[in-house]
Amino acid sequence: MRLSALLPVLSAFGLDVIDEQPYLLHPESQQEMWLHNLHFALNATPTDGWEERFRTALLECLNNQVETDSLLQLVVSTGLSGRDVAILRTYSSYVSQWLPYGLATVHAALIHNSAVAQRLADLFRWRFEAADQSRADAEAALLRAVLDEVASLDHDRILRAVCETVLATTRTNAFALNADGALHSTIALKLSPTMMSMLPLPHPYAEIWLDGPVVHGVHLRFGAVARGGLRWSDRRDDLRVEVMGLVRAQVVKNAVIVPTGAKGGFFPKSLPDPAHRDAWMAAGIAAYQCYINALLDVTDNLVDGVVVKPAGVVCYDGDDPYLVVAADKGTATFSDIANEVSLQRGFWLGDAFASGGSVGYDHKAMGITARGAWESVVQHGQLAGIDVHTDPATVVGIGDMSGDVFGNGLLRSTSVRLV
User: Fold this and answer.
1) N-terminal to C-terminal alpha carbon distance within the chain
2) Of 104, 125, 234, 110, which is closest to residue 175 (Cα–Cα)?
3) How far is CA 312 from each of CA 142, 188, 317, 347, rounded to the nearest angstrom?
4) What is the average pLDDT value for the chain, to the nearest integer?
5) What is the C-alpha to C-alpha distance for residues 279 and 402, in angstroms, rounded to an integer?
6) Secondary structure (DSSP) of 331-368
7) What is the DSSP letter of 327?
8) Residue 232 in contact with residue 266, Cβ under 8 Å?
9) 263 classed as catalytic
10) Which of 8, 13, 347, 363 could cross-link with 342 by S-S, CB 3.0 to 4.6 Å?
11) Active-site residue identified among 190, 253, 263, 364
12) 8 Å CB contact between 73 and 111
C-alpha cells in the first residue's frame, strides 16, 4: 500500500502519523504479505467505541465507498459512523452551493460544533430510518437549543441552514438498499424548497440533490409535470447556480408554450486524464448512470396505474411519479443510456423516460432546431413571393429574445421587423 495514498486518509480522520514500520510476512503455504505498523497521535479527544467506527470507516474510504475529507474527524470525536458523516457531507455540499461560504468552511462549522453535528445526524435518522416523527420533533427542539449555544455567527448561520435543509427533506435513499443488498454510496435527498426560508428565491416545486464518491448532481423541477435536459457540468462548486440559471431561462422562453420547466446537472468526481478519451468517456457515463439511478431512487413508480413508493424510502410528500429527462450539453448521446436504466429498474415510462433516444425523435437530424425553424420561414416567404433575407417583412415572435429559437431566428436576417 502506497503511503501517499494511505497517509492523507489517516490525516483526514485527525490522526497525526508519527512513524511507520513495514514488515514482510511469509505465512506457511500462503502468498507473502506486508504488515504496515504505524504510530500516531490523536488531534481530538476520542469518544467511546471510536476504534471500531474508525476501522469500518477507514475500509470504506480505502474501498471508495466513502469520500475522504476533514469531516471524517467526526468519526473520532463523536459517535458518528462513516455513513453518518457521508450523510452530513451530502448536506454540506448542498448548502455550500447557495450560502456565501466554501465547502471547507461548512465542514469546519460541523467539526468545531460536534454536538450539533451529532444532533443533526440523530434528527435525520429519527426521520428517515426509524420514521418516528414525534421523536424527530423532540430531537429538533433539542437541536435548536444546542444551536443557541453556537458562538460563531458564521457557524450559526451554516448550521441553521443544514438543520433547515434536514427538516425540508421529504425523501432519501440513505437507508434503502441497492440491487446488491448494500447501502447506496451515492446519497440522494429530495427537498421541498418552499420549507426553506434561508434558500434564495426562486424556489423550485421539487429539488433532488445527490452526492457520493463518484458524482454529485442536482435536479430542479418547477412543476409537478415538467421536463428538461441533464447537463454534464464542469462546475463542481456552483453546480446548482449553473442549473438554476438554465431552468430560469427555460421557464421564461417557454412561458407561452408550456407552463414551467426542469433542468438537471451532474459533476463526475473521478475522471481520468482527458487524453485517454475512451477511459474518460467511460468514467463520465458511469457517473451519469449513478446520477440517473439516484434520481429514480427517490421517485415514485406506476404499476398498472397504481402509484408505488420506492422500497426502503420514507416519504413525507404526496404521490410524485413524474420524472422525464432530455439531453443537454455533454449528454447529447446519453438518452439511450438513461432509458436503459429506466427499463432495468422497471420505471413506468420505459424508453420514454429520456427523450431523443434511438426510439424517439432525433430533433437535430429532423431539422427541429433554430436553424430548421428559420429555413421553414425562408420557404414560407418564398411561397408568398418574399425573400426574407432582403425584403422587409414583419414577424410576430412568441417567447423571449434570449430563447435559442426565437432570438437566433431573428439574427438570421437584417430585414425582418419584429411586431
Assistant:
1) 71
2) 125
3) 27, 13, 15, 16
4) 90
5) 37
6) -TT-HHHHHHHHHHTT-TTGGGSBTTSTTS--TTTTT-
7) E
8) yes
9) yes
10) 347
11) 263
12) yes
Cα torsion at 49, 52, 53, 57 (round to 10°)? 160
172-to-89, 254, 263, 405 alpha-carbon distances in Å = 14, 31, 20, 38
CB 3 within 8 A of CB 20: yes
Can you tell me which residue has the cell 413508480? 301
Residue 395, classed as helix, strand or coil, is: strand
Distances (CA, A) of 150 to 136, 263, 341: 21, 37, 45
DSSP H stretches of helix in 148-276: 153-167, 239-253
Give pTM, 2 decimals: 0.86
Cα separation, 96 vs 105, whole angstroms = 9
Contact 325, 331 (CB under 8 A): no
Strands 169-172 and 187-191: antiparallel
Q: Mind listing the pLDDT tens digit for each residue in 104-162?
A: 999 999 999 999 999 999 999 999 998 888 888 888 898 888 999 999 999 999 999 99
